[in-house]
Design brief:
The complex is a heterotetramer of chains A (about 220), B (about 170), C (about 950) and D (about 450). Chain A is built from twelve helices and one strand, in the order ααααααβαααααα. Chain A has about 220 residues and is mostly helical. Chain A has a domain of about 110 residues. Chain D has a single domain, classed as Formate dehydrogenase/DMSO reductase domain (Formate dehydrogenase/DMSO reductase fold), CATH 1.20.1630. The chains are: A mainly alpha (about 220), B alpha+beta (about 170), C alpha/beta (about 950), D mainly alpha (about 450).
Chain lengths: ~220, ~170, ~950, ~450
């Protein structure tokens, strides 16, 4: 009787048997890596906007307050986008012939709004409220990143549910005093955890409720 | 050392030949049979196996791991009130570790079986031996090593033939 | 959504001052995208060009306005998000709303976004423009001007708008030969003529039910659907509070040919042929006068008359007798006489709608038509071809007209045979004014710029009068300028804010009824068909509203259509059963109707409702149910004799939401009835939860600041369904359609269960939302933790986590969970195939659920969350009464209470200590947070004695 | 429980050879009979097989169409409604998993109890288990509203930081089925290894030799290997019994761990286990008759086998009858209104005709097995086994329909009516099962050759 298999077949068979065992775990790992990747989360991706608005210039160089444009942020769930007229308060005097700003002027002239590409997107079943975060000492840059350095806006964080939970489970590392909420250059204090605990009590934050499903999903 | 491979038609004959060979001072190397022959393993001095211990250990380890996962997820990582039941609803947490533990035991056992038997072994010198393919069907092969002199081979072969061997062949050790 | 934006952009703007509320660009936060679309196509975000002053995107605004119900106004407060009105709630200042709503008010937001609404004028040659109509009209009016309007005819419904009345009167002055006809298919002609008989003038009767101790309804469904339902319901229940002095506790007697909501809420109910109700009234009036009754009556009715009359007499000054619209004028007149004798608490007011008899108006109109006296016809939001008695033959007469125009929301049956169809602006898009049934006037202000190229009736009348670019806003302000006195602008602002114009309620006049003497009727031999307005779609004008079509009728729980109810004896004689189709024939008219056998019905009486069988209502309403208008006679619109009934051999399934109605034995505990007497005698309430069963688990400690709970007073529930539709509107509850209901699939988060006792008598109504059980059976069975408790005691359903195992619903003893078998909210047939305008109604604070997901009542968690965030911004806790659920807000009788059990002062805590308090299926150990107060009855102890 | 019946059959004096007919009583005969369909295809007329294959293939296509439509249109294509949220999907699942229990049960429990007759039937019974359990596992997933997310039942790393909810009986189900299915695959495969070696060595052409050879893992029949092999096999059998019992107990707990009348009964877990074994045995009988007839295995699968399996089914039918009676008694004696109302509904409600048919199939019909003539007639055993399978499916269906449609609150009592898609999936799954089984019998030895060879030599002591 001749041999059916060459000696190397033994090794192949062993490798196959082991991979049946290990393969599923590898696949799960790959899946997790993909869901964490910018491909899925959209993190750090810049989009083409009708007007290449630079936060670095407006919020950084000129140090315009966030609320000047995002006026609803303290009152509403939605931070608000500046109406064209807000842009034109300055740009009716400055850079009045800048081609880059043509869409803004056109918007005002035709009374048609500017269609921006949304950068920070949450699914429709997530109910995020800017105003309560502002009221409870979460600063803009905590979630939006250092916008004062971004020539074009991008999503600085993953915005996954796990990312939200990391703060909702324990907000102390991120809490700021009221007067620091809009400060783009705020850095956590050296004794931030201690300060955070104090602020937690100061803002009357009930952390137990923060991880309820109904806090964000309705 | 010379290895003889004797072919029998009945398991009793093989057992008889094996005992005779052992009594004669030859070493019974192995038997290749279409089904397990009672007493053969003992005759070969097959050690009591750790296989069951491995299965037990593997099963228990995974079951404990499963319970730990449940405890960690339901108590520590994301405690959620489900129908007013306590966070550690241990009676309800038993089923998952149980089921997966048994499966884990089976897999551990399979791994141990492969380890103990050296399988998979797709290429083996024995497969090249003429007539070996009948060992999985209806013939009973006995491999003995004749440890002493060359003259012993003839004796051994004769003994095997007397015991009912259809054929006796020399094989590579 | 984009198509909607562009449509609005394309809509030519009239010179209306509504920019501040104009529905502008839809911000992403308000986009009603469904859960299913979770891929990531690029999403646009669109700011305003010039942000309106009051608008902060993301914050809903509330405006007071007035909605129309059969011509009467009801003040409401409408919530608007980003310029889209999405929810109607009651206006507490308005006497026809009292802060509550009914199904029609709640459903009006859906009609606004109905994709079947007319979007542009249609002329004789197809789609046209308002300019083209203006030109055609001008030519026509020039002719009319020459003959002083002799050929001009105006047809409208009930007209209470002071501005429209002013405009039309001015028009009639300019065209003295013109005629204006008003009619409603659901008219109050009999009531009006009865008042003329009794008082010599057409007074409107407003019983002060809240002050009564005994009331007798002679087929008067005053608790049923209609412009007065909310006010009547509130008054009725306020007179039936357990806290009241037992002597002051209202007892209601009702005598009806077929059960109505009023009858279902009565303490004593009599099934009686409608013709014999006059004999009943005669008998009662005789007893009250101390005479021996001699009108022929069946024994049961005689006993009823004796007991009721004695009761009425004993409560003189606090007793009321009312008669319904089916009863002939002389019965109404006799009731006035009886009420006079009883010194009944009734206000008489001058009619708000000053027209004469609607039936006569139709007669005269038909006469004009057939004698070719009509040259120019304008129909204001009426549909006579559908809802006028067919014997008038409008269908054949209209096409002969030289010029006819129809103004309406839909290109309906009448529009189809008019030369012109003009799209009407929805009430929520219009400036106008309306009066309530009691005369209270209020302003109609728009919540949204017209979605389509539509105009209001004001604009169209102004157009006829020759004005070129009329503005309703100016017209309405013009009307009220003289009333306002000095500072009109601040008066106007106040009126808009309040939603009601002060001191416009008609003052009660003193009126002494004449003693009328009416002849008893002989015992009738022939069967009679009794008609009634439909509890869901009234006279058919809202037939294209899917919420209303799917709203289960309060008593039969049928949806999507009507049925012909007949008594079991008649059914047996006919040899038919529920679901069989019979043919009703009268003269030349033949209607095929589906039979429903109803124990609560007098023999030889067939009863059904109007408003169904529309042919051109729209995609939703077409061909639903059967149309009984063809059987109607102009002289006898309600009780129709000479009808023959015959089996057709066909049968049809009736889409019904409730499985079983009968409660027997121990199940009566589900909806226990407690008599007032038993309660006064110190009865221990219905069963509370049993002792907890042994468990391996330790008790769970709860130290959270909130524990939300609801108490529903079944004693106060009159079964009107307002809560059901309110919930649907607030929570984006989709419609499933008749086919799905036939397959026992429903979506209403809140259902109102109706049970009967062993004899078929109505046991009461039980609104059943989610119980939010503390030991919720649905939660531990969910494998993915989509059904969980939050720390405020809410049983929350996380739609985005749900994978649709349905284990929760299978384990829910209350069966309050609802599953999206199909994508009901997306593109199903009865969601108008997902046409964009429908989505504009969606509440942006509530997720639109995708296919394959379980959903259920959330206690309006979005409202709780909003209140909590507001409170937390102010560093305080939520106060009692700060969170009002949609069902609670809608309830006319305030039967639903909601609050925080951790707040010792909360109203719900007091109610939970009530003697009537009980838990539904509490013995299962679910510890429900929604609990009930037992149904309270006030039977007359003399009744049983009289029986023996 | 079933061992009682079996002990009567097995007396020590009897020779294990009685489970094999005379003309099969040699190692070579066994090998020839079993491997003939696999290695000597030209000697067979495959017409019946092809017809069966075509029919079952068509039914499989029907299942694929039905399942695809279900996935495209949504689970609403089934007849389920707001009250009866579970329907055919779950009934089919419970039924299939019951059948899926029997193979491993036969292999393991009978092995532990040294019932030698198992050798002739365990292989295809285990194959049946695999196919039935796979089909069973399909139904709960198809039944989901959002089937794509079934993997949320597993604790895998995710960006939501969420976990399964371990208290749910569905989680237990999921893991029990998954463990059971994978376990059974291992058990079945290990049992196959020596037979695959036999086929490797008997095959004439290269490809079968390679394929069987690869799967045989180089099995040489070494006495040492046999030793480890037997230790492992017996240990697996010992593990399989609690796994099988727990699996169907958990299925019972899906219902028992609830608040619904007719479900919340402590008897459910054991009653489900017996029911599973019952329907599984019935299915084994059906397959045994077909395999025996189709592949001329009369020498190996004998009338004695049918006789003994009939006795098992008889026993199980009595236990089932007792379980039903216990249900009735509990409902009546417990006095709970909802339970009593449910009992009334079972006997006089809309589904009562089905209930009576079910009682006939499951309790009455198998009583024929008291007669030896019935037990020893393959046709009779076959017919009654089919009846039992129908009855058990009806029982699974009624457990769901009765309780869900007759819920606590009368207002929500609605009946369930199946749609065409319910039926196509049910029959499609039967077709798919047959399809897989037909492929199985052509690729894998349907009887365990080494075990039959072994019992032929049992008792032969040197």
């Amino acid at each position: 009787m001749p041999q059916i298999f060459r000696p190397s077949a033994d090794s192949i068979a062993r490798v196959l048997l082991v991979s049946i065992l290990v393969g599923p775990f590898v696949l799960i790992g790959i899946g997790y890596a993909v869901t964490q990747s910018p491909y899925i989360t959209g993190q750090n991706i810049t989009m083409k906007q009708p007007v290449p608005f630079s936060h670095a210039h407006h919020a950084g160089d000129l140090a315009i307050d966030c609320r000047y444009c995002h006026a609803g942020v303290e009152k509403s769930a939605f931070a608000g986008l500046p109406p064209t007229t807000t842009c034109m308060t300055c740009h009716s005097q400055l850079y009045t012939n800048e081609p880059m700003l043509a869409p803004v002027r056109q918007s005002l002239a035709e009374r048609r709004p500017i269609h921006w590409q949304r950068v920070h997107r949450l699914p429709d079943y997530v109910y995020f409220d800017h105003s309560i975060h502002i009221a409870k000492g979460i600063g803009c840059t905590t979630c939006h990143g250092p916008v004062q350095t971004m020539p074009l806006m991008r999503q600085h964080e993953t915005l996954t549910m796990g990312w939200c939970l990391s703060c909702h489970r324990d907000p102390t590392p991120y809490l700021r005093p009221e007067n620091q909420v809009f400060n783009s250059d705020w850095k956590p204090a050296a004794d931030q955890l201690k300060q955070g605990k104090k602020l937690l009590a100061h803002y009357l934050i009930d952390t137990k409720h923060l991880t309820d499903c109904s806090t964000c999903h309705r | 050392m010379i290895v003889l491979l004797a072919e029998f038609t009945r398991p009793e004959a093989l057992m008889r030949a094996a005992r005779q060979a052992q009594d004669a001072g030859d070493k019974v190397l192995d038997a290749f049979t279409p089904f397990p022959i009672a007493g053969m393993a003992e005759l070969l001095g097959a050690r009591s196996t750790r296989l069951r211990a491995v299965m037990f250990a593997g099963g228990i380890a995974i079951a404990l791991g499963a319970f730990a996962t449940e405890y960690f997820s339901a108590m520590l990582d994301y405690p959620i009130n489900s129908g007013g039941r306590p966070l550690n609803s241990w009676p309800a947490f038993m089923m998952f570790p149980f089921a997966i533990g048994i499966f884990a035991a089976a897999v551990s056992g399979f791994i141990a079986l492969m380890a103990e038997t050296g399988l998979p072994r797709l290429h083996h010198p024995l497969f090249a031996v003429e007539g070996f393919e009948r060992a999985s069907q209806s013939r009973f092969l006995l491999a003995i090593a004749v440890l002493h002199s060359e003259t012993g081979t003839a004796d051994a072969e004769k003994r095997l033939r007397n015991a009912g061997a259809l054929s006796v062949r020399e094989a590579e050790p | 959504m984009s198509s909607m934006t562009s449509r609005r952009d394309a809509a030519p703007l009239s010179a209306f001052d509504i920019d501040r509320r104009a529905a502008l660009k839809l911000l992403a936060s308000g986009m009603a995208l469904s859960l299913a679309s979770c891929g990531k196509p690029p999403e646009e975000i669109v700011p305003y060009v010039d942000q309106p002053e009051r608008v902060v995107p993301g914050i809903p605004l509330k405006f007071a306005t007035t909605l129309d119900m059969a011509g009467y106004g009801r003040g409401v407060i409408v919530t608007s998000v980003e310029g889209r009105p999405i929810k109607v709630e009651g206006n507490p200042r308005h006497s026809a709303s009292l802060g509550a709503t009914d199904v029609f008010a709640e459903a009006s937001v859906l009609s606004l976004y109905d994709p079947d609404r007319s979007k542009a004028p249609r002329g004789p040659k197809g789609i046209a423009s308002w300019d083209a109509f203006g030109d055609a009209l001008r030519t026509q009016m020039e002719k009319e001007k020459k003959r002083q309007g002799a050929g001009l005819r105006l047809v409208s419904g009930r007209m209470t708008s002071p501005t429209l009345l002013r405009q039309i009167n001015a028009l009639l002055k300019a065209f003295p030969q013109a005629r204006w006809y008003r009619y409603e298919p659901i008219s109050d002609d009999n009531e009006r003529e009865g008042a003329v008989m009794a008082f010599g003038r057409p007074l409107t009767t407003l019983p002060r039910i809240g002050e009564a101790s005994v009331a007798l309804s002679l087929d008067d469904d005053f608790l049923g659907a209609g412009p007065r339902q909310i006010a009547n319901g509130r008054a009725f229940i306020s007179a039936r509070r357990a806290e009241n002095d037992p002597d002051r506790f209202l007892r209601l007697y009702a005598a009806e040919p077929a059960l109505s909501l009023t009858g279902a809420n009565a303490d004593h109910w009599l099934a009686i042929r409608p013709e014999l109700i006059r004999n009943l009234a005669i008998a009662i009036s005789a007893i009250l006068r101390g005479e021996k009754p001699n009108a022929p009556l069946p024994p049961a009715a005689q006993r009823f008359a004796t007991v009721a009359a004695a009761d009425l007499k004993s409560k003189t000054g606090k007793a009321i007798v009312t008669a319904g619209r089916t009863q002939p004028p002389d019965v109404h007149a006799l009731c006035h006489t009886i009420n006079g004798m009883l010194h009944a608490p009734i206000d008489y007011i001058e009619p708000v709608d000053p027209a004469g008899k609607h039936g006569e108006a139709l007669h005269a109109f038909a006469d004009d038509l057939s004698n070719n006296r009509v040259e120019t016809l304008l129909i204001l939001d009426r549909n006579p071809v559908y809802d006028a008695p067919h014997e008038l033959g409008f269908n054949g007469l209209f096409p002969k007209l030289p010029f006819s125009a129809h103004l309406g929301l839909y290109d309906d049956e009448t529009a189809a045979i008019c030369h012109w169809h003009l799209p009407l602006s929805h009430t929520l898009e219009s400036w106008s004014d309306l009066r309530a049934h009691d005369g209270t006037a209020s302003i109609v202000q728009p919540l949204i710029r017209p979605l389509y190229d539509t105009r209001t009736a004001h604009q169209v009348i102004a157009l006829i009068s020759g004005a070129l670019s009329p503005s309703s806003y100016d017209l309405v302000r013009e009307t009220w300028q003289p009333q306002a006195g000095g500072d009109f602008e601040s008066w106007w602002r106040q009126v808009l804010h309040d939603g009601v114009i002060a001191e416009t309620r008609h003052v009660a006049v003193s009126a002494q009824p004449k003693a009328v003497d009416i002849k008893p009727a002989p015992n009738p031999t022939e069967a009679v068909l009794v008609l009634a307005p439909d509890p869901s779609i009234w006279d058919g004008r809202d037939a294209n509203n899917a919420w209303l079509q799917e709203c289960p009728k309060p008593l039969s729980k049928e949806t999507w259509g009507n049925t012909l109810s007949i008594s079991p004896r008649d059914a047996q004689q006919l040899g038919c059963q529920t679901g069989d189709v019979v043919a009703l024939t009268r003269k030349n008219a033949k209607v095929e109707a589906v039979v429903r056998v109803d124990a609560n019905q007098a023999d030889s009486v067939y009863a059904t409702t109007l408003g169904h069988g529309r042919r051109k209502a729209g995609a939703i309403g077409n061909g639903i149910g059967f149309d009984v208008y063809p059987l109607r006679a102009i002289d006898e619109p309600w009780l129709i004799g000479g009808v023959t009934i015959a089996k057709t051999g066909k049968s049809r399934d009736i889409p019904t939401t409730q499985g079983q109605f009968r409660l027997e034995g121990e199940t009566t505990e589900f909806l226990p009835r407690v008599s007032l007497a038993a309660l006064a005698a110190g009865l221990k309430g219905p069963p509370f939860a049993e002792e907890p069963k042994p468990t391996l688990y330790p008790p769970v400690h709860n130290d959270d600041p909130y524990a939300w709970a609801m108490v529903i007073d079944t004693a106060a529930c009159i079964g009107c369904n307002a809560c059901v539709i309110a919930c649907q509107a607030e929570n984006n509850v989709p419609v499933v359609g008749p086919d799905q209901i036939l397959r026992s699939r429903v979506m209403h988060w809140l259902r109102v269960d109706t049970y009967t006792d062993a004899n078929g008598g109505i046991q009461g109504f039980q609104p059943v939302p989610c119980m939010h059980c503390e030991h919720a059976p649905c939660e531990p069975v969910c494998p993915v933790a989509a059904s969980v408790h939050d720390r405020e005691g809410l049983n929350v359903q996380v739609y985005n986590r749900c994978i649709g195992t349905r284990f929760c619903q299978s384990n829910c003893p209350y069966k309050v969970r609802r599953f999206n078998w199909f994508g009901y909210a997306d593109d199903e047939e009865y969601a108008n195939l997902g046409e964009p305008p429908i989505k504009a109604q969606h509440n942006p604070d509530v997720t639109v659920r995708a296919r394959g997901v379980m959903e259920k009542c959330t206690y309006c968690v979005q409202r709780i969350s909003r209140a909590r965030r507001e409170a937390e911004k102010e560093n305080r806790t939520i106060k009692d009464g700060e969170v009002v659920t949609a069902c609670q807000a809608a309830c006319p009788t305030r039967a639903i209470s909601f609050g925080n059990l951790k707040d010792t002062g909360a109203h719900v805590n007091a109610l939970r200590q009530h003697k009537q308090h009980y838990e539904l299926l509490g013995h299962l150990g679910t510890r429900p947070r929604t609990t009930y107060l037992a149904r309270l009855t006030n039977p007359n102890p003399d009744f049983d004695e009289a029986k023996s | 429980m079933s061992s009682l019946a079996l002990d009567r059959v097995e007396t020590p004096s009897q020779d294990t050879r009685r489970w094999v007919l005379e003309n099969g009583q040699s190692d070579e005969a066994v090998n020839r009979i079993v491997s003939a369909p696999l290695l000597q295809r030209h000697k067979w007329t495959w017409r019946t097989w092809w017809i069966a294959f075509a029919v079952s293939g068509a039914m499989t296509v029907m299942m694929i169409v039905s399942a695809s439509w279900l996935l495209i249109r949504g689970v609403g294509v089934w007849g389920n409604n707001t009250t009866v949220v579970w329907g055919f999907g779950i009934a089919n699942y419970v039924w299939w998993i019951g059948i899926g229990n029997a193979g491993t049960l036969i292999s393991s429990m009978l092995l532990l109890m040294r019932q030698h007759w198992r050798a002739s039937i365990n292989r295809f019974a285990e194959a049946m288990t695999l196919f039935a359990a796979s089909i069973a596992g399909l139904f709960p997933i198809l039944h989901l509203g959002r089937p794509l997310y079934f993997y949320w039942l597993t604790p895998y790393p995710n960006t939501m930081l969420l976990w399964p909810q371990w208290r749910s009986a569905l989680i237990w189900d999921f893991w029990a089925i998954l463990s059971y299915l994978l376990f059974s695959i291992v058990f079945w495969y290990v049992g196959l290894i020596p037979d695959l070696a036999t086929l490797r060595d008997r095959a004439r052409s290269a490809l079968p030799r390679k394929i069987y050879g690869a799967f045989a893992l180089g099995w040489r029949g070494s006495a040492r290997h046999w030793h480890f092999y037997e230790v492992y096999h017996k240990a697996m059998a010992a593990l399989a019994v609690p796994l099988v019992v727990s699996l169907h107990s958990v299925v019972g707990l899906d219902f028992a761990a609830s608040l619904m009348p007719g479900w919340a009964e402590t008897i459910f877990p054991p009653y489900f286990v017996v029911g599973a074994m019952y329907s599984g045995f019935a299915m084994v009988v059906v397959l045994a008759a077909l395999v025996r007839w189709g592949f001329r295995m009369q020498p190996i699968i004998t009338v004695n086998h049918f006789d003994v399996m009939a006795k098992v089914m008889l026993m199980a039918s009595i236990v089932m009858g007792l379980s039903y009676a216990t249900e009735w008694f509990d409902a009546w004696y417990g006095g709970d209104h909802a339970e009593r109302s449910m009992l009334t509904f079972m006997f006089s409600g809309s589904y009562s005709p089905i209930y009576f048919i079910m009682l006939f199939c499951n309790v009455l019909a198998p009583q024929a097995f008291w007669l030896a003539a019935a037990r020893r007639s393959v046709a009779a055993v076959f017919v009654i086994a089919v009846i039992i399978n129908v009855g058990m499916w009806l029982e699974r269906l009624l457990i769901i329909l009765n309780t869900l449609s007759h819920t606590h609150l009368p207002s929500m009592r609605h009946l369930f009516f199946p749609t065409i898609w319910d039926w196509t999936l049910l029959f499609g799954s039967l077709g798919f099962f047959a399809f897989m089984f037909l492929i199985f019998v052509r690729l894998v030895p349907s009887v365990s050759m080494h075990e039959v060879r072994h019992i032929l030599h049992e008792g032969e002591r040197p």
